Amino acid sequence: MKRREFITLLGGAAAWPIAARAQQPARYQIGHLAIAAPTDVPPPPPANWDAFVQGLREIGYMEGQNITFEHRSAHDQPELFPKLALELASLKVDVIFARGTWALAAAKNATRTIPIVGIDLEIDPVEAGLVASIARPGGNITGLFLDLSELSGKHLQFLKEIIPGASRVAVLGNPDINAAQIRELERVARSLAVQIRAAEVKNATDLDGAFDIAKNWRAGALIVLSNPLSLAYRTRIGALAAKAGLPTIYLYRAHVDAGGLISYGPDLPDMFRRCGGYVGRILGGTKPADLPIERPARFELAVNLKIAKALGITIPETILVRADEVIE
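RE: above sequence
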């Protein structure tokens, strides 16, 4: 190449905008570790995955241009996570996006060098030993977390407001993940003169039996605690709750969209979008140790009046005026 041509080429490269450089042929691999992948049936809420992809796109990373995804799904079998995490580590992906307590624990055990961005709404990341502190995680893990067990108590208060006479409330959850939430429910239940009974759900095959427990105990309402399995099977859980005639409250808005009665919790798509932003920043050179753990920024209340009518209950006006979304 002639010297003048070389100088011209060099000058042109220096003038490229940053976003354009990000879309050059060199690609990054993002490992995605979840209880259910976007292509699984039942799928995770598409709005969550779309929001994650949007977060990446906002800072210049697009699938097929400069990033690719390596999806690993446990297909609703949490015991598969350690093997799947090791697969991603052996591929030497650039970042692992781990969804939920099981995925995060497996990713942490699989690698100490590959950056991990996690999203988890059940645990305290410091108490769980995932990070050194909220402000400065210090290792290869960062992300968005919510360990507000108080939300479970709030759910019980909402149910009492809807059904003042309810004295027995069943609770669907996994004691391995939801222990803090169950303790908080027991505390709040005493102050509201309510009995609660846990119905254990560790995999999808436990769902029918859990609802049998709730019905045989003559529960007047139901709380579904947050974990990746309950979100993946939101449509089935909603159908079982309707069949049992149980007014049910959830953490995620996606449950109400899938036929649940009421939800109160964080704006999950917004959290996923912010996770996408964190992954993008790491691909751009920021160390996970320097990205502080973030909390949800927005909470929302959603009510499905169609389900309320089918259950023969009236949602109090005091709840409707506070709702961010009312499905007619």
